[in-house]
Amino acid sequence: MKVLFVASEAMPFAKTGGLGDVVGSLPKELNKQGVDARVILPKYGSIPSELSGKMNLIATLTVPVGWRSQYCGLYELEHQGITWYFVDNEYYFKRDGLYGYFDEAERFAYFCRAVLMVLPQLGFKPDILHCHDWQTGPLAAMLKHQYCDIDEYAGIKTVYTIHNLMYQGTYPSDTLGDLLGLPASVFTGDGLEFYGQVNFLKGGLAFADVITTVSKSYAQEILQPYFGEKLDGFLAKRQSDLYGIVNGIDYELYNPADDPDIYTTYTWRGTNKRLDNKAGLQAELGLPASKQTPVIGLVSRLVNSKGLDLVAHVLEEILTLDVQLVVLGTGEHRYERMFADAAFRHADKMSANILFSDRLAHRIYAGSDMFLMPSRFEPCGIGQLISLRYGSIPIVREIGGLKDTVKPFNAETGQGNGFVFSNYNAHEMLQVIEQAVLLYQDRKQWAKIVKNAMRSDNSWRSSASEYRELYEKLVSK
């Protein structure tokens, strides 16, 4: 089985969010299960030099984009047992950051066209092109309409994964012919047309052989108008081809037993050592040393969809509890300012770190007792998976991937690995936080929930097996 992942980001080369984590780790587990999984990415200027310096140029060609012919260099690198390919064009990809430019449609139209054109240069014909998110949405349509009669592309199937339906890539209608080179026949309600515009994500939904998304609950939620982002009706037509497979995390990268970024390593068999991490975190952030006071961690993009309006509504009430709150992240100015101001007023109870630090994130996962993630919607979520791995007990809303991975703790049976609230309601969230703080005082029960959390299996093993079975089913059709 040969699979080529096509994506706009992947760890450790370039990452802005969960997509980068998935594409960086899932192929490794697939390879362990007998799949020859490889990845192709843009060659961004921000890729660390110690990685880009090891890449080998294996081909050059020109790619048509509108009336222009653009250079394309194809690079290859073996890294961590995976073969990686990189599409090089400095005009499109040698920029600060990955996204947010005026010519996003042109940049990723070029990338999709380049990927298809370089396939014969790889020495590797994939059985499946596994495309991710809106940046690669048009590729399935291009394959079917531009390459259907070429022998070298015969039999290639496509899988398209939605990581977040909110981000769709919608552009003016002339993008279809000018940048994508697609015929007017696909500019319909069953194709890429979306309220008079071209929708890159809808190209994947319309033309991929199979659609997946990143949790079973989210696969059902996006069939409803509230979560469907105006595509719920279209997705309902393809429901028989829609699968939900929950994301995992890289258990080598996120491993408290040998994590070099935390204060003290530990396993589920020795969770008392988590208190050393708690003490280290409190000391580093200038919070009073206290074993009895639970530390609540919040590591997130500071945006509305992460449920921060709920936190804003009851933040002062949270800080009246016997807790310490540690925040890490950047995002909307109103939330950055809210947390910074609260930390100034409550310096003995709160630390606001308005920045991105992977090292500090690891220390918060290891040193906090609880992890707050009250998302308005959450296709899968990675924060709660990492917090479970490190024994920081998640407090989450019962939605999407949070619902699939966090199970309410039952003190009578000793089952469950977290705390859950159902409605998007600030005081319902506050009530669950209060329940968690109360249970924390029962050291015996708290030890149970920490062990349950750390023994939860959120590795890629079972999810990669589901992908492998899906690939096999698709290829055998």
Q: What overall form do the CA principal axes indicate? A: globular
* Residues in β-strands, percent: 15-25%
CATH topology of the largest domain: Rossmann fold
The average pLDDT is 96
In percent, how helical is the residue content?
A: 25-40%
User: Could you say which structural class the secondary elements and strand pairing correspond to?
Assistant: alpha/beta
CATH superfamily of the largest domain: Glycogen Phosphorylase B
User: Can you count the helices?
Assistant: 19
Number of strands: 18
For the CA atoms, what is the radius of gyration? 23 Å
- Major β-sheet profile: 9 strands, mixed
Strand order of the largest sheet: 3-4-5-2-1-6-7-11-12
CATH architecture of the largest domain: 3-Layer(aba) Sandwich
How are the elements arranged and paired?
Layout: E1 2-6, H1 18-32, E2 36-42, H2 49-52, E3 56-65, E4 68-79, E5 82-88, H3 90-93, H4 104-118, E6 128-132, H5 138-146, E7 157-162, E8 170-171, H6 175-178, E9 193-194, E10 197-199, H7 200-207, E11 210-213, H8 216-221, H9 225-228, H10 232-237, E12 242-244, H11 274-285, E13 295-299, H12 308-318, E14 324-328, H13 333-345, E15 350-353, H14 358-367, E16 370-373, H15 383-390, E17 393-397, H16 400-405, E18 419-421, H17 426-440, H18 443-455, H19 461-475
Parallel strand pairs: 1-2, 1-6, 2-5, 6-7, 7-11, 11-12, 13-14, 13-16, 14-15, 16-17, 17-18
Antiparallel strand pairs: 3-4, 4-5, 8-10, 9-10
Helix pairs in contact: 1-19, 4-5, 5-7, 11-14, 12-17, 15-18
